């Protein structure tokens, strides 16, 4: 507990100093770019916060709940400190908004343009990303089962998978727009292409993960192909499948946003980013980036949580004591 108290003391001191520094840069005279006192105090506060985080990271507790809170607090406080430095540097050094808006302006934009951001989120994420993600992952999974059953498909599709993973999205997206129109189905088609082959390759690899001894044991029971698939090979492939789902959760959002650069109705995250950059509204661009980052992280977290729930029996989790 002595380590925890020391960490809290360092961090509370750094927090108090950070509040004073923020108040100073927002209300002080317009000479901060030349004020060495401000930057020296920010540097000292950063060293103190660094010491507090190092001490908190070294904290170990037998109470699992306390340990989990400490493990979560380290990255959260580190991220907040980076935001603090961003705010102080952009405001204190009078950095032009067209180059880098401050976090305060971005947060204000998130609230004042909430209706526009919500419409963009609905168009890009709820329609294009989720539809393309579901179709691409399901298609890749079913074709992997078929390729596992038909050997020549496995030998023919896997090289194509490697080739498709190298396709430039900036070349595929305009073609999909021509085929499926300007609305969200063309973006979903791009997402399908980006997510199909990662799921195919990972599922095929996962279906081969069961050991020879396990397969021979089922053979001694005269198990059919489908009985072996359901009771042994698919459970063994679950970590590979979830690995593909996690990879695709980020690829899908990137694909949909980039595809919107090549034609879309007047709504969508990619459309908003491309148009607001032209208008020099960088705070709106950053608001879209923040929204995309939060949505992508939450999506990835949901998939990881499902993986933890469904594959808790896997040796990789048992070895970690989870």
UniProtKB/TrEMBL annotation:
It is found in: Cell membrane. Gene3D superfamilies: MetI-like. One of its GO terms (cellular component) is plasma membrane. Keywords: Cell membrane, Membrane, Transmembrane, Transmembrane helix, Transport. The chain crosses the membrane at residues 37-60, 72-93, 125-147, 159-182, 188-212, 251-273, 285-306. It is a multi-pass membrane protein. Residues 140-310 form the ABC transmembrane type-1 domain. This is ABC transporter permease. The lineage of its organism: Bacteria, Pseudomonadati, Pseudomonadota, Alphaproteobacteria, Acetobacterales.
